[in-house]
Amino acid sequence: MKRRERRMANRFAPLLLGTLMAMLLGLQGCNSAASPSEAAPVGTTTAPQTTPNSTPAAGEEGESYVASGPIVVENQLDVLAQREGVVVRILADVGAPVRKGNLLAVLDDRQLTAEREAAEAKALSCEADLKDWEAETKVAEADCRRAERMREAGINTQEELDHARYKLVGSQYEIEKAQRELDHARAVLAALELELHKTHIEAPFDGVVARRYVRAGQKVASGERLFWVSAVAPLLVKFTLPERWMASVKKGDKVYVSSVLAPETQHSAKVVQISPVVDPASGSIDVMAELEGKPGELRPGMTASVRLRAPTAKPR
User: Fold this and answer.
1) What angle do CA 73, 240, 302 make, to 5 degrees?
2) Are strands 97-98 and 85-90 parallel, antiparallel or unpaired?
3) Digit-coded pLDDT (tens) for 232-251
4) Same fold, 65-74+234-308 and 77-105+202-228
5) Which residues pair with 116 in a beta bridge?
6) Domain range annotation of the chain
7) Which positions ≥6 away from 247 have C-beta within 8 Å?
8) DSSP E strands: which ranges in the chain?
9) 3-class state of residue 112 by DSSP
10) Tens digits of per-residue pLDDT, 197-227?
11) pTM score, whole prediction
12) CATH number belonging to domain 77-105+202-228
């Protein structure tokens, strides 16, 4: 009998242990679900978590738009040779600051200088001839007046009076001829002075020499590149905006410009030009802003980032 009872106890012991463990786990789950500190009240929702400094969604007030574009200057061009010649002197190299009219290089001008001196002498000679004929004409005028009075008095003949008149008219024609020769000589002199001036390669505006294409002793042809001169101010940045910004951006608005070299440095700029039309291919508008203050690390040719304020959404 005792043996049977022990056998029955061994058979039901695992079942009884499993039932007790299940009851304990159920009680623990009920206590956890009913905890007032962790359970959310009925009818409420949990607020979404926000990340500091997050960018607002598109179209929300306070949105900032970042565009990119090149930094340019208004004056930037290649200085070309205006006549052929041999470069005898280089007076400015790459990186040199220049003022408008400063000499950059000089071409050989010896032949032109000699021709100019000859033309100047010719002009002086023509001017002397003109003065000589003006004096002759005054004498002819006096002779003509005297011949007219003598003819009135019956002292000379009509032929002598006509001769005096013809001499006066001839002198007047010689004055006109001498004046034309003088004008031609002066025109030749002016043309040679212009050609002589072309041998002096000058800076077209204030700026800096960005490139030099020639060396001393090199023969250049008319129209050949000699230097590339670029202005350094004012700096302009060109960029494009989506067409939805057309009604929100206007001249005088502030934008902020930064470069890859110093992305944390923000330079203020003012919008100075806005395209009145939308590019149908890209659906964008062209905008230009002028940088204010010192340029810092910004240089012409850089690609800059431009940050704008968001357009304010209008209520419907």
Assistant:
1) 40
2) unpaired
3) 889 999 999 998 888 888 99
4) no
5) none
6) 65-74+234-308, 77-105+202-228, 110-198
7) 311
8) 65-73, 76-80, 85-90, 97-98, 103-107, 200-202, 207-212, 219-220, 225-230, 235-242, 254-259, 267-274, 284-291, 303-308
9) helix
10) 999 999 999 999 999 999 999 999 999 999 9
11) 0.63
12) 2.40.50.100
Residues 65-74+234-308, CATH architecture: Beta Barrel (2.40)
- Residues of the chain by 3-state class (helix, strand, coil), percent to 5: 40, 25, 35
Low-confidence ranges of the chain (pLDDT < 70): 1-63, 310-316
The residue among 219, 182, 271 whose CA lies nearest residue 105 is 219
pLDDT at residue number 20: 53
- CA separation (Å) from 53 to 48, 50, 65? 15, 9, 15
- Which amino acid, 302? M
Tokens of 182: 């003088």
Give the tokens for residue 142: 């006096």
Helix (H) or strand (E) holding 136: helix 110-153
